[in-house]
DNA sequence: GAACAGGCAACTC
DNA sequence: GAGTTGCCTGTT
């Protein structure tokens, strides 16, 4: 992997980074395709706005060395050897195909609160609507961030949402999830759950702590652990995964074969199952 | 109108 | 403990 610092952008050159797959494999909801530009996205993470665009095997991320080293290198998980992980995960023909198909996906290290909150919103919702609700949440309650003359919004802090009432979330049209969002925000803001601390806890303990929150079950807890706490062995099972596991392993999937990277295996399977069910984009 | 969408909790037996 | 049902809202 080569890192090249240009005047206003940092170039990451590697065969193992595919922006389209990384942003569209369902792990995040805050990177939007830039209109009129292919393979170019604008998003906000950790309160910083950026453009990420890809040309061939080069990904260009806005910002210089300081910003790249302090944020984007970790955010895009660029220190990890995904090719070696794919090889280790290829323990059966199906998994090998899924891994091959998902080459280039990187698990983003998102803000813990953002991951928890967006996956609470995701329950029983489709992706366009999740994106819409998350955007509205940020627009209404997030801090504005200027980027190239446009105003974007950071993900709202738990403290901000903790001060709201359920009715304040009515414009989001997120239904019964409003109660869960406020409840989780208060738990975080009041220190009843310490997400930063859970980053260092064993995955099993982190999942148990997350599930103590109202509205957080197995699936959401594993998503928050995988995408927000860096627990790469967390294995969220949603309806897509259920179908894929059922058809490939007869419902008796032995996830321990994928340790310690079951979460990455999950992303490969999820992406593979979904893209073979839809016309290629 | 009914069924469903990247679940969860409360309730049943 | 496995299975069922209501929940907000929007789309098909």
Give the gist of this structure.
The chain contains 13 helices and eight strands.
Percent helix, as a range, is 40-55%
Biggest sheet layout: 6 strands, antiparallel
Please tally the β strands and state the result: 8
- SSE-based structural type: alpha+beta
Strand content: 5-15%
Q: Averaging pLDDT over every residue, what do you get?
A: 95
Number of helices: 13
The stretches of 5 or more residues where confidence is low (pLDDT under 50) are: none
Q: What is the H/E string? A: EEHEEEEHHHHHEEHHHHHHH
Which of globular, elongated, flat, extended, rod-shaped describes the shape? globular
The Rg value, from CA coordinates, equals 18 Å
Task: Report how far the terminal alpha carbons are from each other.
Answer: 27 Å
Q: Please give the order of strands in the largest beta sheet.
A: 1-2-6-5-4-3
Polypeptide structure, described:
The protein is an alpha+beta fold. The protein contains 13 helices and 8 strands. It has a 6-stranded antiparallel sheet, with helices on one face. The mean pLDDT is 95. The protein binds a DNA duplex (13 and 12 nucleotides) through helix 5, helix 6, helix 8, helix 11 and helix 12.
Please describe the structure with a list of short key phrases separated by commas or semicolons.
281 residues, alpha+beta, DNA-binding
